[in-house]
Specification:
globular; signal; Lipoprotein; 1 helix; eight-stranded antiparallel beta sheet; 124 residues; mainly beta
Length: 124
């Protein structure tokens, strides 16, 4: 498995955020980055979610804002192995495919841009 935490942070910093949906997602902080998501079982992916980076109790936290006002929080794993649920009991499934980390939890799916690290810092 490869290290993706640094890659996720860098890729999110590069993602463009459209201001056209400000009224719909007014709850997201300025500077939030747009990602593809599919909210609910059977939903189609669309660039509808916004991601905010923060820290809580010394842990890097990503808050994903849904277009309907809902949200989900993920802990960025310190060993670079992806994301885990920050404040929920539902298990997180994730798959790194190329430059996308697809995360699934309770029927919701998210696609985070990621650049796997190569070389001596890459995990097994």
């Amino acid at each position: 498995m490869t290290r993706v935490s640094t890659a996720i942070a860098g890729a999110l910093a590069l993602a463009a955020c459209s201001s056209g949906d400000a009224a719909v997602q007014a709850q997201a902080e300025e500077g939030a980055q747009r990602i593809e998501c599919a909210i609910g079982p059977g939903a189609e992916f669309g660039a509808d979610c916004l991601v905010e980076r923060g820290e809580a109790d010394g842990v890097a936290v990503l808050t994903v804002r849904h277009p309907d006002g809902g949200f989900r929080r993920f802990e960025q794993m310190p060993d670079g192995r992806g994301l885990a649920a920050f404040d929920g009991a539902d298990p997180v499934e994730q798959e790194l495919t190329g430059e996308l980390l697809e995360v699934s939890v309770a029927g919701d799916r998210y696609r985070f841009p990621a650049r796997p690290q190569q070389g001596s810092d890459a995990g097994e």
